Amino acid sequence: MFTGIVEAVGRIKHLSPLEAGLRLSIAPGGLDLADMKTGESIAVNGVCLTVVALAPGTFTVDVSPETLACTCGLDALGEVNLEKALKLGDRLGGHLVTGHVDGVGTVTRRERCGECYTLSVRAPAGLGRYIARKGSIAVHGVSLTVNEVGGDEFTVNLIPFTLEATTLKAVTPGARVNLEVDLIARYVERLQSYHP
Predict the structure, then answer these.
(1) Is residue 117, in this structure, part of any structural domain at all?
(2) What are 141-167's pLDDT values in tens digits?
(3) Does 90 reside within a domain?
(4) What is the pTM of this model?
(5) What is the CA radius of gyration of the chain?
(6) Which of 95, 99, 74 is nearest to 85 (CA)?
(7) How many structural domains is the chain composed of?
(8) Residue 122 burial (10 A CB sphere; 0-12, 13-18, 19+)
(9) pLDDT tens digit sequence for 84-109
(10) Could you tell me the CATH number of the domain that includes residue 69?
């Protein structure tokens, strides 16, 4: 589990093809790896991955073909949002995030609003039903509050701190972003539709 509070911006430094999938070597930026062990989970652009190796100034994860097929931003060199897994007793500063991406959205608008920016994103068809005004959503692993929602498109506000501390500072119209809807919405739908 994660909170969607990005701890550091790292960088994918090297990609190696596997028989199936990719192996990524990631420089952790300001993320302290001292308490990390192989086998632990880490969110990379909102995607829960397993640390398979650690070395000074880098960690390695493997990405399966399935994960590559339903996410974005893990198949190229560049900056990524990083968050270590939540420990029992940690503060839940954002919202409950599993790192299981629901779909890839497309940024449709980015507009300055004082010191902040408004970001509009079109979610994949059908995902909008899980997105609620004033509800939570993770965009590239960043916990955000939904300002408005209409159909499969929603709007969030990016404050200066979020812009400084995450990769969302570089997101422009046309960019693709990993989306994870609120966990509770998925369970509510399942409970309502379940008929044994």
Answers:
(1) yes
(2) 999 999 999 999 999 999 999 999 999
(3) no
(4) 0.94
(5) 17
(6) 99
(7) 2
(8) middle
(9) 999 888 888 888 899 999 999 999 99
(10) 2.40.30.20
